[in-house]
Amino acid sequence: MHWIPSPNPNTEIVNKLAESLQVPYTVAYLLVQREVSSFEEAKLFFRPEVAHLHDPFLMKDMDRAVQRIETALSSHEKIMVFGDYDVDGTTSVALVASYLKDLTTVVTYIPDRYKEGYGISLQGIDQAHQLGVTLIIALDCGIKAHKETSYAKELGIDFIICDHHLPGEELPSAQAVLDPKREDCSYPFKELCGCGIGFKLIQAVHQAKGGTLDTLSSYFDLVAIAIAADIVPLIGENRVLCALGLNSLRSNPRVGLHYFLQSVKRPVQVSDLVFVLAPRINAAGRMEKGHSAVELLMAEDTETALRISRMIEFFNTERRSTEERITIEALQQIELQEDQKAASTVVYHPSWHKGVIGIVASRLIETYYRPTLVLTKSEGVLAGSARSVSGFDVYQALTSCEEHLIQFGGHKYAAGLTLAEEDWEPFKKAFEEVVSTTLLDTQKTPSYLYDTVLPFDLISPKFYRILQQMEPFGPHNMRPVFVTHGCKDSGGTRIVGKDKTHLKLEINDSTGIVFSGIAFGQAEHLITIKEQQPFSVLYTLEENEFNGVKQLQLKVKDIKFE
Predict the structure, then answer these.
(1) Collapsed DSSP state (helix, strand, coil) of residue 395
(2) CATH 3.30.2310.20: does it fit domain 448-561?
């Protein structure tokens, strides 16, 4: 395991910020690392507010989108709100449909993951035509849907596309294409997720009607869930929207989320959105129908919400057991493979569930740290999910093998692909060849990035409280990770846990200050620690509560002996 220090910020800037904010040097150091270098920037960082959101009309085509929606409302047109089957797509649909349903007739549509696949489908357009829909608002998809939008146009259906993926050279034929990543779009923030763009759309419609942002606060929770699930950078407008959404979830969660949030016994955090809410919202699309997630998020009474929640919880339980079974089968397949020293992992079985193979690929990387493909058979072809290791571009690797593929798409660390069954062996060989010749030695083992070295005497409840104000944590604003050197057992380190695989640490460093910590899955270090060998710990700080007493502890990610 490599420990990699983050770049050191400019000392002069850190000192000036520490003085202007009246905070410890280490706090200012962490802020400058996150490109917060002035009093005004720190104020925006620590106190995100509704007023910090940008004018939605700065986005290219927003005026056209609002004008088309206003026409639809005044003419009482039927609108279809169309979105992908993942968390970003379903929250987007729930958000926009919830806002529009009191203004006109709205129908919602989530494509079937297995029959229709990702993005705008001809089947969905046909259904819109049958229902008399004349405007489709597509969310989290559509930026490359040239054929589909042209087909809709022939049927007399207009499109407004709200997408955050990279556009191609030409845009689809739509009334409006809202995507900050358009080259001709000067919107100040480029990293919105699909639901974020959906929010900017209703913000613009609301603004045009004379409404204020405060009255849209009931939608912030959906945007926050999508931001967390879609792993977009938690900076700028995403940070503001996520913070506002967390406040909503803590004070007044929508009725559809009560059942899932009852297990969270403290104020809701980003990690709860990622590990509690997102898997359940996703489970509907993975195992059954993604539309049930939309119904849950739009539910207005407890009885309806409870019925759908229990059904989705069943899907999630089924998803977990299916994922665990396939992971075991895939690990067994890897163990039987002839080339144990392969640079990549590529496994296939025709009966594996398509909805979980991406998760399985991520699980396999935890055991075999290398670029991984997991494939199954679907609709007469092989369908697969790719996951990568830090620094390696798996999308580029697939591009090098595209002669063997029917289609593929995705990004650096995650992608999807389909290929003909007869191309399986040539593709597998080609992929291994690409990975083996381009994967760097530094990419063959996991690495941890840490912020700074921290002696124990600098850790205090006040320091921790300031760190907590740096939330919400996520990409580009990760929870601070520290390293402390020269640690030794202070006498209380022991093995804990039902399976006796975890370490409960009681340690001190060279300052003599003693801290407790938990190191999951690291019980093998106990003997060496008890021998009083000096070691370094890499950790985050957390507050542990036991019998009503709260105290700071180290959440240890790794231990290295000096």
Answers:
(1) helix
(2) no
Nearest to 189 by CA among 59, 95, 92: 59
Calpha distance 182→74 (Å, rounded): 30
pTM value is: 0.89
The residue-averaged pLDDT of 371-400 equals: 93
The pLDDT, as a whole number, for residue 288 is: 65
Res. 175: pLDDT tops 90: yes
DSSP string, 219-280: GHHHHHHHHHHHT---SHHHHHHHHHHHHHHHH---GGGHHHHTT--SS--HHHIIIIIHHH
Cross-strand bridge partners of residue 176: 160
In angstroms, rounded to a whole number, what is the distance separating the alpha carbons of residues 35 and 9? 9
With a CB cutoff of 8 Å and minimum separation 6, the contacts of 113 are 85, 285, 286, 290, 354, 355
User: What element of type H or E holds 539?
Assistant: strand 535-546
CATH architecture of 56-309: Alpha-Beta Complex (3.90)
pLDDT tens by residue, 297-307: 999 999 999 99
**Greatest alpha-carbon span in the chain:** 80
Residue 278: both structure tokens together: 């997102």
CATH class in words for 324-443: alpha beta
Give domain limits for the chain: 56-309, 324-443, 448-561
